[in-house]
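TEACHING EXERCISE
Course module: macromolecular assemblies
Task: Read the component lines below, then compare them to the predicted structure of the full complex.
Student: A.B.
Group: 4
Components provided:
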Amino acid sequence: MEKKTKRRDFLFTATYAVGAVGAGAVIWPMIDQMNPDASVKALASTEVDVSAVNPGKTITVLWRGKPVFIRRRTQEEIAEAKSVKLEDLKHPEKDEDRAKNPEWLVMLGVCTHLGCVPLDQKGDYNGWFCPCHGSHYDTSGRIRKGPAPTNMEIPEYKFVDVNTIKIG
Amino acid sequence: MSEHEYTPKSKVGKWFNDRLPLLTLANHLTDYPTPKNLNYWWTFGGILTFCLITQIVTGLVLAMHYIAHADMAFQSVEHIMRDVNYGWLIRYIHANGASMFFLAVYIHIFRSLFYGSYKSPREVIWIIGIIIYLLMMAAAFLGYVLPWGQMSFWGATVITNLFSAIPFVGEGIVTWLWGGYSVDNPTLTRFFTLHYLIPFLILGLVVLHIWALHVPGNNNPIGIDIKKPSKDTVPFHPYIVIKDGFALLMFMIVFAFFVFYTPNILGHADNYIEANPLVTPAHIVPEWYLLPFYAILRSVPDKLLGVIAMLSAILILAALPWLDTSKIRSAVFRPLYKQFYWILVADVLILGYVGAMPAEGLYLLIARIATAYYFLHFLVILPVLGFKERTTPVPLSITEPILGGSPNLAAVKKKDSFKDQ
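Instructor-supplied answer key:
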């Protein structure tokens, strides 16, 4: 009697297990279809001509549907960014690590709080200010005040030649 | 539910009813015994049903003309406004209908709060109601994205980014929601699908909401349990039907005023600018009905905690039947609760106001105090009040205060404290 019960239990468990795998195999495509598709992933990199950008100017380009700020910083801005002590930062990052070529700051123009586009040359730290929920960024795009948790993101980029930046 | 068995008069009716008892259901709804002292605050259930049907009907019609594509959505909405016969009317009814829906649901919720309608044995009605409210907010948000204006786009960006606050998996979830690396066409098409789906989910939940209501029956302004049917009740039809109908007409006048005289006052001018992923509007605000929660989100200086505070502000309502420890339902007999109730109403209105203002200086300070008070009300004041408050005597029946008697004679003999009043 006891033996029979065990056999049946095994069959039940095996059936549930196979059923769960089957259900998972059906549900996963339904979930994954919402992830970025091949055509979205294909738009991975973009090249920008920056020859017309003078010191103190920012251009905004679209990369993967998001704005990228390319700012040619003035000497004062660079000095200001370098002079900040790391202890004063919410998300400590050296300016040298954010702008390999100190004159050029290339970063995603997306506030790390809830994704708005911060305004250029605004806020308490002469950098950027997000109008949505009041985050202040410095001349290196680092968060200084407000609800944003991290500095504005630096995308992968490189100088193809003196006047061309390739993002992505 | 009803004690007496219903038999249709006609032979055909009886034949059909034996196979599918729809006529029994209709009879239950008609005869449904309702407390005879229901006031006009009780008419908003019917008004909300009207709002839901209006949104579904106008929404179906709009979907015949709308194109869910990032390049064409904005144009297609203008096409509805200018070219489609009566398109302007249908769209304005739908857009203002959302606001009217929330106006009615807020009155409905605050009526429950005042008269203690969420208390035992009506907890399940209340929780279903909260789920409906959450779905309404989701539907309203998704619908606001569809015209693909600046507010649509940036509203969608900010709200979906709330999920990025979740540790570790947040970014992945946001990318999954978007179907890309920013709000774009894949986001729009799925939002349209979900916006179409949710009203029917709400419809199903409304059926459950009413079903759950018909088990214990309506609460009433004095919040006592009544015998059903008795001298304290009237049949739903024609008494409540007429009263609901009159209130609905008054409500429709307000509705029509917005649609015909100020159709855009509740919207935002920036949404008549097509979505631009490079420029965030200088001052983005959600629709008025979400402002109190938006204020709570902004009043917390930390991203994750802000999101948690905002969600808790809504979900705390689901725990309300257990947070309110008072056995007395109606605020009429709770002198202290009545005062705290009105402070809460003021608190939510203040939150709504500061939610529309920039998050800085004095506004931020007020938002923080109001947020703190909101949670204080539910987590401290309500539980303590149930033990500390001296309530006033509750009548034994609805007729008792007027006629001095009660249909429930045993109860009268046991307690006649009302005479001291």
